[in-house]
Amino acid sequence: MTQHHQVTKQTNHLTGVMPAAAWWLKCCGIVAVAIAIVGCSGRPANRPATYPVSGIVTFSGSPVAGATVGFQSKQPQGRSASGITDAQGRYKLTTFSRGDGAPPGDYGVIVLKYKETASASGGEYRPVQGPERPPEHELPPKYAAAATSGLEATVGATALEFNIELSAK
Fold it and tell me: Are residues 65 and 148 in the same domain?
């Protein structure tokens, strides 16, 4: 006749988990909460402060939808910021996280908008024959480079409303 030994395990009456496992779960929970608090408590120490920058882009008096606005830093090692205009031509710049703005400093400003190709707008796909042509600008090409756009902005330690009126000239 064989004897069977019954193994008994102590369990926590509230969780039904063994004490070592309960301790481990508590530790993991504390670490998760600490990570969440640190991760949600503002910007990391190595990031520069940013300030909101927004505005409206118009071309010959009409709002420009779907354009990319770029602020290119003039400082060495400076950060650039960008945003995309909505149907009313409004944009908000982003440097690190959506809509956070730009660090203080001087910027050359560019505005890009390319004409859609048939395949990009859902038309019939046609394979490229030969070298690809660069996309065509919907806006005057001078606005595609900070050196030729004639647009400059200075971001300070406050919010900036920077409206951009583009012209055909």
Answer: yes
